Task: structure prediction
Amino acid sequence: MTPRKIKKTSLTEVRIEWDDGHKGLHTLQTLRQYCPCASCKMEIEANERSVMLPILKPGQYELRSIDTVGNYAVQLTWVDGHRTGIYTFDYLRQLCECDECKRTTAE
Ligand SMILES: [Zn+2]
Ligand SMILES: [Zn+2]
Result:
């Protein structure tokens, strides 16, 4: 399962066309919230312990570029400079927010 095409379709959305024909949709906010890098994971855990609201950094949910890493993942570079998140294709697919995937998770 690999993305055939990855395209930023708006300021808040990325669409991925998979080689199995699936048309994936991702919002940048969700992608950033689920950033798999070590420091973001730590931040999520810290937020769970305290009741502090996450501080919104400018550019946090703005995507600068998408790069493919080998043949297993993509690296997202954000406008605030964050770029350590490597999203494997499997992980990306789990985060998919298209109507079809939303329906299967809701049921
Ligand atoms: Zn991160
Ligand atoms: Zn989907």
Notes: The pocket of zinc ion (ligand 1) is lined by residues 35, 37, 39-40, 82, 84-85 (CB under 6 Å). The longest strand covers residues 63-69. The chain has a mean pLDDT of 89. The chain has four helices and six strands.
